Amino acid sequence: xxxxxxxxxxxxxxxxxxxxxxxxxxxxxxxxxxxxxxxxxxxxxxxxxxxxxxxxxxxxxxxxxxxxxxxxxxxxxxxxxxxxxxxxxxxxxxxxxxxxxxxxxxxxxxxxxxxxxxxxxxxxxxxxxxxxxxxxxxxxxxxxxxxxxxxxxxxxxxxxxxxxxxxxxxxxxxxxxxxxxxxxxxxxxxxxxxxxxxxxxxxxxxxxxxxxxxxxxxxxxxxxxxxxxxxxxxxxxxxxxxx
Length: 243
Description:
Layout: E1 8-13, H1 21-35, E2 39-44, H2 55-62, E3 69-72, H3 80-90, E4 95-100, H4 109-119, E5 124-132, H5 136-152, E6 166-169, H6 170-174, H7 185-195, E7 200-207, H8 219-242
Parallel strand pairs: 1-2, 1-4, 2-3, 5-7
Antiparallel strand pairs: 4-6, 5-6
Helix pairs in contact: 5-8
């Protein structure tokens, strides 16, 4: 087993993805091997206790294929934000990427965004969705949400706050103090990138629909997003006032 530090750690959020995660990992590895052989995968299969979710055993099985694949399988103490932090904290690479493992974001986007980060000497790079196949309701919600974000947090070079993959240098991640355990984690990353004056960039992508399970983003999650946006704007105001 190599002791070299990976150039790229990819955190794959695999919650309740037992049926689809193997194919996604195969696709992702194929792109990584050609473009960045010094990689590692952190498969986050955190689960709700006694839920019957098979994802933990599936991702543990995938680690047997390659020593560069590791699994994080903890009983959940939060939702997406908690999962993301548990994966990022387990990663050892010089550059950290995070992507959902349900296939809505193409696996090859990890390599495309990684190249954007390296070629433009960025601290953080990500995608923005020029096409969404997940329905008009989600498209409208996303448009309103991103517009409100730009009003509350102007000056950030980002058209699509929640889009993944997000790829950042280890130094950029080390400078963040992420608190969200829920769906707001993507926005919190971008708010802290703005506060830290990181060099950021984006590339286009297509967001696919998913038929294997219903969306985890419920109407209550939208209210959570909006409440958090306002709360973080208040926190930013008082932080700036103290300075």
